[in-house]
Amino acid sequence: MKEWQTFLRRFSDMREGKRELFIKDLTPGKAKYDTKHVIGQVAKTKGILKNPDILWLAGESGERVKEPWYISIEQVLEEDWVAGKPWEDVLEAVEKSEKARGFK
User: Fold this and answer.
1) Which of its termini does the chain have fewer beta carbons within 10 Å around, N or C?
2) CB burial of residue 49 (10 Å; 0-12, 13-18, 19+)
């Protein structure tokens, strides 16, 4: 089981279900802190997902939730960016991308 981290503006922004996220690898080794752009199923409990990995939620200032969430990665997106303007907030750009994909 791997461990990942994703950043949110507010912890209440995270919802269970299919999500588009940027996740950072927390597994020790050469790939530690590598970022992936993924689509995955996210849940508060691991029993809901098949072979889930641990997903830590972190706020913009780095504070982490006390209990982990879980993610089952369905697709690693080849593009490691989201469409937007240079000054646009990345979290807002991901939200727009999720809406375009029909996740919300």
Assistant:
1) N
2) middle
Calculate the alpha carbon distances from 89 to 30, 72, 93 in Å: 29, 26, 6
Which phi and psi angles does 91 have, rounded to 5°?
Answer: -65, -35
Cβ-based neighbours of 43, under 8 Å, separated by 6 or more: 16, 49, 52, 69, 70, 71
Tokens 């597994």 correspond to 27
The whole-number pLDDT of residue 61 equals: 81
Give the separation between CA 76 and CA 95, rounded to whole angstroms.
17
Nearest to 44 by CA among 25, 74, 17, 64: 17
